[in-house]
Fold this protein.
Amino acid sequence: MTNEPNSHEVDAQTRRDRVVVDRKTWSPAQIVAGVAGLFLTVLGAVAALRVGFDFDATDSVLGLTHTLLMAAIHLVVGIIYLVTAGNALGSRGTLTTMGLLLLAFGLVYGIESDSLAGALGGDPTIGWIYAIIGAASLITAWVSPTIHVRREATARRTDTVHEQDLPPSIP
């Protein structure tokens, strides 16, 4: 009798390895988008509640004169920023696009606030706030990296194969 096992007498074992890869992606741009989005959303919601659904009415929030249209602009831009804060891969691109739009809107509104007084409230400070948020968004999008964190785990499983499960031997 030999020391080598016969395939019909001993259970055979099969080892299977499975590698599980988990990737987490984040960017500091998400923080900037979240803070700006939260600020603009809250500002827009409070302004909309104070003004009501009267399109000719104005009211003051944080010392800034608002109309319903300006409140709606705050809400839409704020929600876009909040959605952007949840996606690391899209945050830099969206911050670049929104930053350019807000910078242009803020400069025009800050310079020509008297011309926009009827529709938007005419407070030039709001324009400068938008220009600052736009510039901060652009700078953040340009300098903020996208960070990929990769984690690997190996799951090992050993299956025991019994003699009755083996294919018939070939003579």
